[in-house]
Amino acid sequence: MTLSQLTIEAQRAYPPRESEFTRTFWSALREGRWLTTRCKSCERKTFPPKLVCPHCWATDVEWVKLGAQGTLYSWTRIHAAPAVFASEAPYACGIVDLDEGIRLACRLVEAEQSPLAVGQRMEMVVLQYQDGPIFAARPCA
Amino acid sequence: MTRNVAIIGTSAIPVGRHQTADDAQQQTLEHEIMTRLVVDAVRDAGVDKKDIQSLVFTLPRPYTRQKYFHTFLMGQLRLACKGNVMEVMGNGMTAALAFDQACNDILLGRSEVSLALGINMESAVSATEHMMSSMRTTGDVDFHTSAGFTPIAWYAMDAMRYMHEHGATREHLAAVAVKNRHHASLNPLAQYRKPITLEEVVGQRPIVEPLGLYDVPPRGDGAACLVLATEEIAKSLGKPYALVRGRGFCHDGTHQISDVPNDMIAFTSAQQAAADAYTQAGIGPADIDLAELYAPCTIVEILVSEAIGLVPKGQGGRAALEGETRLGGRIPISTSGGLTSRGHPAYVTSLYNYVELAEQLRGRAGERQVADARFGMATGELGNYNAALIHVLEAKQ
Predict the structure, then answer these.
(1) CA–CA gap between residue A29 and residue A47 (Å, rounded)
(2) By the CB < 8 Å criterion, does A16 face chain B?
(3) A7: left (phi over 0), alpha (psi -120 to 50) or beta
(4) Using CB atoms, which residue from A16, A81, A97 is nearest to B142?
């Protein structure tokens, strides 16, 4: 699944680390591709991607595409932020239940015409910062 | 014969701003506070220095200059012992684990008298700087912290979900803060004691929506010491004591969020740990006379009180608003003033909760005394109550 990409003219405030394993995820995200891992043994997807399946502990996992659509389970707008995020505050974060049954937490992109509300339909997007990507969600148009 | 553990003595400094800035000419030294508290608590218990054979400390904050604080303090007190001496760490559960481990030393026969103690100093470090560390304690440091999540942001999302599911309002949450401030007004150990109104709580600036300044914990410093002993020793002292009657622990196998969608606000670990603690104690939720909950925000008190069966699901806010959980009500919760008003020096917070239970169950809580208090419950947590450690205490003469 290729996600919509929004260009941000700034560096990421607290960049995620990349390992040999998670580089696949972040490199794909840099190209707008939205992936996670699925266990080859029990066939369950997990997010964030993990090299050991948390369900059956099998170590043979594969990279698969994730869907972009989901529902907002909950959200907040953070006004009191850590020092590195202070210049971005207030900003919204939330929990999205993807349609394929994966729950994740991420930054939310707010849109004036569609205020955030629990239960709202959401779409995953990539925030392309100058130094790399962050995944986020925004209300469906 | 099965051994039982009792709280026989306590001491604590009022929660507040005690830490001095690095450049202050006169410094507050942690060990000077702590040595006095040990002497006070042991005097309160009525035991001798030589009776103490085990000490479990909470890990000090990284801002405490003296490292290996626990063994340093042993030297300050020339306290020799052969049971156990250690510092424990479990983020918000730190002090609950210190208490639990001190109990274990007695249950295992390693000591007859144990101390659970610690100091948490952090208020001279600004909130924005402190959050640079605390933001790494909740969620995934790469996949969540990079989005800007903070510890209380997760509770805020609990609140948003709870309001959606149960039609609860900001006033329902605020009622917990108002009730707890009233309790704190009666507690000399509390950080904030001036009564507040519902309008004032709702009118505070937002911190993590929908939570405002008075829905979230203040920053503060604290230190406390508990003296635990075998029930045999407790009995021999001829004074009231608080007996540990039940204990439950549960980790739900997730950290902050489950990628398999679940009922995030059910706090199932607290449900399970409480069920085990009730079973051990041979009682049910209806038998509890008061509870001191590890609840950093108003919403958390509501959710925990529902999870452990003290109020019906979806009714926690209403219970606070209608006075059910207030002193004099059906089931007083957070009679110390709770984390929002008594204060929340995080690594020792649960020590203050046990201090309050011990005061109540020994009939020494003064204006805050819950009449005929027999059973008290305390909770500790990790993450978004992904883990809970729960104790039931009983008043004994």
Answers:
(1) 14
(2) yes
(3) beta
(4) A16
Going by the DSSP 8-state scheme, the letter that residue B257 receives in this structure is B
**Chain A closest-CA separation from residue B96 CA (Å):** 27
How close is the nearest chain A Cα to the Cα of B208, in Å? 5
| C-beta separation of B15 from B221 below 8 A | yes
Q: What is the pLDDT along chain A (141 residues), one digit of tens a residue?
A: 699 999 999 999 999 999 999 999 999 999 999 999 999 999 999 999 999 999 999 999 999 999 999 999 999 999 999 999 999 999 999 999 999 999 999 999 998 888 999 999 999 999 999 999 999 999 998
CA distance B136 to B144: 9
A125, A2 Cβ separation under 8 angstroms: no
User: Residue length, chain B?
Assistant: 397
- The contacts of residue B155 (CB under 8 Å, 6+ apart) are B208, B211, B216, B296, B297, B299, B300, B384
CA–CA separation, B76 and B39 (whole Å): 12
Tokens encoding A50: 């993990």
Q: Whole-model pTM? A: 0.97
B69 secondary structure, DSSP code: H
Whether ipTM exceeds 0.90? yes
CA pair distance A121, B264, nearest whole angstrom: 19
Instruction: Name chain A contacts of B139, Cβ cutoff 8 Å.
Output: 105
CA-wise closest residue to B101 among B61, B39, B59: B59
- Whether B263 contacts chain A with CB within 8 A: no
Note the pLDDT tens digit of each residue in B68-126: 999 999 999 999 999 999 999 999 999 999 999 999 999 999 999 999 999 999 999 99
Which among A22, A76, A102 has the least Cβ separation from residue B153?
A76
